[in-house]
Amino acid sequence: MESIMNLFNFESYNFYLLAGGTITLLAAVIPNVFDKKQLTPPIIYIFIGIAIAFAGRQYTDFDVMQHTDIIRRVSEFVVIIALTNAGLKIKKPFAWETWKYSFRLLIITMPLTIIGAALTGWWLLNLAPAAALLFGALISPTDPVLASDLQTSRPSKKDLSKIRLVLTSEAGLNDGLAFPFTYFAIFMAAQGNDYTKWIGEWFYIDVIYKIIVGVIIGFTAGWLLYKLIFKITSKSHHSHISRGILSLALTLLPYGITELLGGYGFIAVFIAACTFSSSEEKAKYMDTLHDFTEEAEQIFVAFIFIFFGIYLSASMEKLLDFRIIITAVIVLIFVRPLSGWVALYKTDLSAFQKFTLSFYGIRGVGSIFYLMYAFEQTEFPNAHELIQLSAVIIVLSVFIHGLSASTLQKKLD
To answer: Which residue among 228, 269, 298, 359 sits deepest, i.e. has the most Cβ atoms within 10 Å of its Cβ?
Structure first.
């Protein structure tokens, strides 16, 4: 009997492999089973995570502050994959029609959301100024990961819904544009509220330089990769180039180069994907790149939200704080929608279209990244309150926006 038992290998690593394989299988099955259903995959993953926590509670209680690095790395990779996916969907990235509503959301709605959320957090939760501003910055961008259900169609398919196009283009850029505001909060936490000592460095480096580097590297990388694949190599070689490998190259090259030069990699990745896919005659080729990035995105979304469900279960008592819930509801139901409505006022959009663009500012993986990134840069006051508030914001967004997404899709289509 003992010799038979010795055959079994109960190392933790093997259990991790089993868990990874199971979650990957779920990522393959659940999006198809629940396609165009009321329950979106992230909702299902959260429930799975909660069930896991109840089954083995002694193994699921962990301190987020002790794992900021790995959480940041995983969320970072998911975001850049989603940004590539979003960029590949933009049919005419250099046409004004693509951006005329998105720019309003980026220039007006985003700053108003940051200010409104920061004031709400400061007023209801007594957040310190730096913590309040960080909260506003991390929930201001529309998440390109969770908003994918409402984005425009795959590259080769013509999408007549300009609302889907606006949601895609906004989500593609505002994740990168949230960085300057995050850095502003970091400066406040690290160097104090006397902004006169550091405002110049913040503006010239974290606003001007890093955005410009991201734009230039993104455009250059996308253009060079396109030339390399479709102009230098012969047509007979195109079918032999792995779409998966090319998708990763399109994601990692502009991101890595831009980060090495101190720019915003999120902006570079999205612009590189837009530039690479701008040729309509290669749209069907882009479909396979889009499909690969979407599949990779689905796997990591499954991992993130199953663990998010575990965290929710382990921290339920702290998250049910009345003040935190009220703050989250005000930001989701009032601050972002009102900010969006202000930006779209006096446009030619219908009331329903304005509501859709204003209300569906979905919070998710990007918010997780910015929170973990800021915590790694300097020590923030109210750190635990920020984690709890962000978690409640994300779970409410997943349920409120997710449960209504299928109904909205039918109206958009």
So the answer is: 269
